[in-house]
Amino acid sequence: MRSLLLALGAALLLGACAQTPRPVSSEAAPAAAACPSGIAEGARCLSGQDSAGAFYLIAIPRDWNGDLVLHAHGGPALGEPRPQRAVEDLQRWSVMLKAGYAWAGSTFRQGGVAVRAAAEDTERLRRIFVQHVAVPKRTVLHGQSWGAGVAAVGAEMFTAGKPYDAVLLSSGVLGGGTRSYDFRLDLRVVYQALCNNHPRPDEPAYPLWMGLPVDSTLTSAQLAQRTGECLGLGRPAAQRTPEQQRRLKTVVDVIGIPESSIAGHMNWATFHFRDVVQHRTGGKNPFGNIGVRYRGSPDDAALNAQVLRYAAEPQAVARFGADTDPGGRIPVPVLTVHGVNDAVAFVELESVFRDTMVRGGSGERLVQAFTDFAEHSYMADPVYPALLAALLDWAGNGAKPTPAAVAQRCAALEARFGPGCRFLPDYRPAPLASRVPPR
After folding, report:
1. Distance between CA 208 and CA 144 in Å, rounded?
2. Domains of the chain listed by start with CATH number
3. Where are any strands of DSSP class E within 156-267?
4. Which of 3, 56, 195, 215 would give a disulfide with 230, using CB separation of 3.0 to 4.6 Å?
């Protein structure tokens, strides 16, 4: 069934990609802005709001090398865009300015899981830079986390005139919407079987794939209270009851995530699932768990008999996939980096992306590097200049890097950018099915 749904989604995605993206109109010039704290001394910053409503921030170092890093941020956030998001992104990636690159980041015009719209917003920002700031020598499209999916899709959407010279994807959610979020439905159904408080018995029932009913007023703080009640999250282990400890261990063992990431994934499986269903799939279900066998609990037979089961609707899977799933048809060099202990975006998603690139005819344009990091949002300062240098050498002279060569570059940069190179040149990720039960 999953292969049929994915085939339908791929067909719609091909149709969507065959369409010429909407033309981007002439944009107003950005205004001079004070650079945030922590940015390289002497940098020049510009900010504005584009014609679609996205806020953006641009920074050019005093000793600019002429290259631009165009950033697609992670998340995604829910609600209206806020300028502060771009400020936070620039501060997080300030090492790129220290390395000599200009940087530009958009907040995106809207919150929620809308990949192609975010890719359009990112490309619109590149055109603003070219129109009003300078024509860069080379442009690297950088996507982080969920933004890596935005960059992977955007690199396929916008190819005329070669707007991007290379693509850097860090800690990427690269399985597309139809593969990356299955385990969060697993989390919801296993949690509900154990806890029965999301929803509570005295609250209206709803299918868990919708995240929340559209009219629900539940807040993230209230959700944290519920997970605290059932699993003892948010309190020291010594203060948990034996029953809380048993339930928590069951969630960790069955879903395959550490205790520290449960709250975040529960939020995603609640509030982001509601965004997906209400705003992206027309109220239909894109997530299913028919046939999944959950393992790792004290009594797997009892758990599997109790968990709720849902069948994904083909139209919803196709619609969601058409917006979120990369097609693997990227015409420029692509370098990915992923921490092998990342508990937010599993490293096994890199196996899915490699298969996608091979099927799309771009396998030879992909190099994947791995690090001994658990951090998802940021690894260490020398990592990113090393990746950019290796990637741009590849784009410029065809010298395709190996993971070992990237590691060597990083080690050479530690004297300038500080310690933190923890590359694993021989690492190869397992298939996603080894981490998330297939369906």
Report:
1. 28
2. 9-176+325-434 (3.40.50.1820), 179-321 (no CATH)
3. 166-170
4. 195
